[in-house]
Write a structure and sequence with these properties.
- The complex is a heterodimer of chains A (351) and B (339).
- Chain A has 351 residues and is an alpha+beta fold.
- Chain A has 2 domains: 242 residues, Zn peptidases (Aminopeptidase), CATH 3.40.630.10; 88 residues, Beta Barrel (Elongation Factor Tu (Ef-tu), domain 3).
- Chain A is built from 9 helices and 17 strands.
- In chain A, strand 14, helix 6 and strand 15 form a beta-alpha-beta unit.
- Chain B has 2 domains: 230 residues, Aminopeptidase (3-Layer(aba) Sandwich), CATH 3.40.630; 88 residues, Elongation Factor Tu (Ef-tu), domain 3 (Beta Barrel), CATH 2.40.30.
- In chain B, the strands form 2 sheets. In chain B, strands 1, 2, 3, 10, 11, 12, 13, 14, 15, 16 and 17 form an 11-stranded mixed beta sheet that branches. Chain B has a 6-stranded antiparallel beta sheet with strand order 5-4-9-6-7-8.
- In chain B, helix 4 packs across helix 8.
- The longest helix of chain B has 19 residues.
- The chains are: A alpha+beta (351), B alpha+beta (339).
- The interface between A and B is large, with 68 and 63 residues.
Chain lengths: 351, 339
Amino acid sequence: MQTKEFLKQMVEATGVSGSECRVADFISRVYGEVCDEVRSDVLGNVIGFKQGAGDTKRPTIMLAGHMDEIGLMITKIDDKGFLKFTQVGGVDQRTLVAQEVVVHGREDLIGIIGLKPPHLMAPEDRGKAIPMRDLQIDLGLPAEKVRELVSVGDVVTVNRSFMELGSDIVACKAMDDRAAVAVIYECLQELKKLHHTADIYAVATTQEEVGLRGATVSTYGINPDIGIALDVCHGAMPGVPEEDTAPMGKGPSIAFGANIHPKVFEQLTKLAKEYNIPYTLDPTPAGTGTDLWAMQVVRAGIPTALLSIPSRYMHTSVETVSMTDVKLSGRLLAYFIASIDAAFVEGLLCY
Amino acid sequence: MLLKKLSEAFGPSGCEQEVRTILREELKDHISEWQRDALGNLIACKPAAAGPRVMVAAHMDEVGLMISSVDSAGLLHFHKVGGIDDRVLVSKPVLIGKGRVPGVIGAKAIHLQRPEERTQVIPHRSLFIDIGAKSKEEALEKVKIGDYVIFATQYGELGASMAKGKAFDDRAGCAILAELLKEDYSFPLYGAFTVQEEVGLRGAGVAAYAIEPDLAIVLEGTTCNDVSGIEEHEYSTVIGGGPAITFMDTSAVGNKAMIRELVRLAEANGIPYQFKGTVTGGNDAGRINISRAGVPVVAVSIPCRYIHSPVSLLSLADVEHSKALVKLFLRSIEGGFRV
């Protein structure tokens, strides 16, 4: 499967934090084709294993990209059959108005989050964003039918199809962070052409958006020699300070700071230069706000690194990423894995 | 399905060509005489020797956007075409120009916002459309200044005999009018598919001038706010409640004899109906009403929740009932009803 097609099917699948099973099933199936073995754990992480060459002392490298997406959760079904909801992860209430959604009840139901007619709004409210508590989902069904099909606790996603904007930029919901799962897939494809001694654990993690929980337990289970997280960072756009962003289409952004092992960082940038892979730097003094923050302090501590794909409009339903960035990141990751041997891993303890 | 085709057609005010084409194609076996004018109205003529000249109108145009400039980063800035609340624009896919170039209207990530920003409306002047272009030059290879923009919304059926889609205001009216025009009548009937309703009822006035009707019915997709959180006495219409007859709005006072006849026909034939509960807003009826020496008018509307936004909701039963009621009214004119 082409990486773009894999990404398309992933972002169109449902997987709100804590309810990742549908996207997880799909990823398991595809990882099954490129890994030696695929398993999952108690929190639903999908773990693909690919063995390295060599009999002894194979280093283990864990690659983590989270497959969960932000979304909504039903909190109340009112007398008229309208649904009230809360957010799962960080949702900007302003992105929900006039949105088509899918309520994942006993069956998938299309609904609309509508805007009340402006002439019925108090004049002082017309210039304000509508608070999430005043929004509701309309299923176009009578209340008794709604109660039959929907329960409090059901999750909701925006009804969005994958879009190709020009030849390189793609847009949809859930690019954060399935673009990273696509990077890992690209890397696994790339590795078919390379010799690597390291064992690879390709992990699609759960519950990142609500507290990095999938990464915490999967890292414990794998106990890797090196842990690399893949995530999105803010793509450069007007109205956002340059220092908070990375340009789209110019390769991965490689983070540096307390959350990252300096030698792993060094190795990544060295290889990028060697193989002419463009990249940008992402200086991050403390928390990276990614799975990596949890991974680093698992068990007795894990050497870590972070590659990020620039994405515009993060946490909206029209997040964009560049396929060039996905490909370049996958390639760099593959060269990195191919370069790792037992001696490198040993060196990570020598500060 | 005609309503689906019409709902998904590209036709902001002043750019109604696609809708005209769909309607002409749909009616090619039924209409032999078409009248066109300088503004782009499409008038289906069904001439007859005797009887009152009857105009039935529905507008083809929809609200949308228009590209106003392209910046150095390759992002497109836009004007609004017709009445759109800025709040419905954020986080939506759109299609630009007749080539339907896909784009998205994004917003700054929540992580980068100050908490107070999240309570403020992002004015459309601060929003832009991203078509994946990396420079002004690259963007201008795909789009041009002045291109119209529609929401990328697909028609679909859901719930209990409901349909969702964009532009039901007033493609629902167009779909009903097209069906009515497939039948023959003993009086001269003019089916006017009008332009530019959303930017000031521009098309209907000139169409009525040309047609010189003795009476007119306007088919409209109208507001519907029968949702939780709104007091019942504030409802404009109720979805599934049948065609909404307008007594009065800001544009016209409905002809009382016509309203009485519509009510009589609905009750005699068991067709649900309702009166529009609010007097705000206006439609093509206002212009037709004051054409030449004056024309008796009434608006019959299909309730549409969330109009003027990327996705609205209507009841397919309301569409059927509206069509049935207006058809009965036209038959009643054949039977001798006069204003």
